[in-house]
Amino acid sequence: MGTPICKVYLWSGTTVYNYTFDSTNVLLGVKHLEQPYNQQATVIIDNYDGGLTDVDLKGYSSVLSYGYYVDGDLYSPTAPLTVVSQELQSATGPTGRLTNHLSLVGIPNLIGYDEANADFEILNGDGRSVKDFLEEIVSKEDTATTGTESQEEADSDMILHSGVLYYAGQELTIAYRTVDTLTFKLKKVGTPTGNITFYIDDADGSELGSKVLGNASALTTSYAEKTVTFDSPIVINTAGKNTKILCEFTGGDVNNYVSFAYEKLQSDADGGGSIKTGENLVTLYTSGWESHFGRDAFYKYTYQLTSASTPFSHCIAYEIDYDTSTAGTLLETYQPKDALRIDKGSSRLEIIKTLLRLTGFSMRAGDDGDIHIFQATTSGGSYDYQYSLAAGSHVFFTKGWRQKLVIPAIVSVSSRPFDTSQYAGTATDTSVPVPLRKTEYIELFLASNAQASAVATARLGHYQIDAEGGFGSVPMNCGQEVYDYILITDSREGGSTRIGNIGQILRVFEPNKWQMDFRFGGIEAPVELIGIGSGTTATTNFVSTSLFFAYINDIYADLQYVKDQIPVGDGQKAIHLLINYGFYPIPKGEKGHIFLPFKGNILYAFLYADQTGYIVVDIWKDIIDNFPPTVADTIVASAPLTLSNAEREYNTTLTGWTTAFLAGDLLAYNIKSFDAAESSTWVADTVYAGSAKVKPITDNGYEYIATVGGTSGASEPAWPWEDTITDGTVTWGLYCTIKRLSIILVVEETT
Description:
The protein is mainly beta. Among the domains are: 146-305, Jelly Rolls (Sandwich), CATH 2.60.120; 551-674 and 739-749, Jelly Rolls (Sandwich), CATH 2.60.120; 680-734, no CATH class. The strands form nine sheets. Strands 1, 2, 3, 4, 5, 6, 7, 8, 27, 28, 32, 33, 34 and 35 form a 14-stranded mixed beta sheet that branches.
């Protein structure tokens, strides 16, 4: 296979930096997390010569490439990232060094930072598809230039003549459009004379434009649609709320008038429903303007989109590549119309995700810097990659198989109650037992029952991919991407297989570690990349990653277990602090604070760890004005919470504890030690028996046990966070390897 290699390429304009494991400023380590909507990386570069001390890399673009040396470097690039922070660290001592720590994020993260700069309402006459909106939001391409907005139902008359009522029309939203024509349905009664004029006014009543239709005498005695074309198209470059389109007639009398057609759906009470949500009939009497909720004018107008048709026009544009055909799919056929609304401040990424969930399509950022949209393969026997223990195959270190319920298991899609035509459709995951099938209910604009069923199936497909459980740990696969459809086979389990789509990839590259962890599903659960260690040792000290995704899955199960095990009676409360999340062993020291907003008493306490071990927890209490509490504020006397070669402790006696507390008190939790007797400080050239315990000269929060006895070396070793280390002829390992600890206090509130 060759020697593993990694390269970090950074650039800004014509300035370029390259770092590898054999460069001048040596690349010490990379930790790289990829999800469809979240890409992060942390990079450590050796700054031994101070050459990077004055180099500001914030804002630089970057590509991380992985590969192998086989008669030359063979690299495979990943999606581009951007440096968002830079930290220079320095340490003294025999293992100290100067290091430059970079934090990077990907294109999805940058899109997630973008916010809409205005409210944007897509009106009912808009004929753009999901694909059109994606191209406007992602690529900033105008995909539609003309359209018609209308309300064409009418069952009632409004009488226009001088002296009483002379304006009628519709109050509505016209956002970022240039209006060309305006239509109302009119007829005459008797012999009215005088001009009829159509207007468009803004929310303040200021006239945006007008056009004379002609003399009322030219109307027919039967209703007919009457249209004006404005001499200059009326440009509306705002969100356009409460715009009025109006018909004016100031002539005639009670026997000779213009009749204006409208739809009377409900009573005229405020808050009544209307045919078109967010709109209503409006009139001007001699007494002033009046809004008629539950009624809508018959109208049409034609428009062109203005250049500000998307509230993301100020954002960076990205090219879209369609990796699978979109012809005939919901991406091209579904038109969300006014069911899609973008509020000012909305996340650009969340709008993209909302649109994709309607279609069955997915996205990921590619190594070409484009957004790739495709339909993920979820079944069949053709895999992107296969892992097994067979010689010559992609091998794996570990794998896990977790079966999870799909929630929701039923998606029900229907028209909105006020839509003229009503359609509905559902999709069901039949693998979920009937009593456990939870339902999601969605109301959208729909064109048919078949479309409703297709949207339901698309949304359910996203939930099914997201629910896939399990994980794998493998040697670096440079070409693996999120959503890849893979197969893992373990011959030791009788050919047991695991099939699914990759939802998360974690790549780790550092000396003596060339590994990739992945997780099935979890598409919608963004993970924060755990930071890098201090860099003061000879290695980069990344936190443990071998079971990274399994830990995430386990946290909820642990919390549920704790909830089920603790008997909390009426009037009692459980106060829970979770220390660490299972990514690395817990060091000593103060771990967290909880504010108590009420007066009460502690009844009993509970410790629950992720594994058997030794740990001693002290609890301090003080008023918030004295923050932070100290050891002098202990409430546990000589009976701290203790695990001694155990996984849990349930303390109901609280001997010697100060159990009363007041509203406004603050609790602090301190990992005091890992045993009743604290370890002695390490000494050079000293004989240590097996099971001897020491702590570093400069306390790093951990204590170490001799797994193999012997004589310590002449200089202090670089103490690890995990694994073991050889010191002279002694082998040291962590004394306490607990990585996740729940501390629960059950209390009662008093007066």
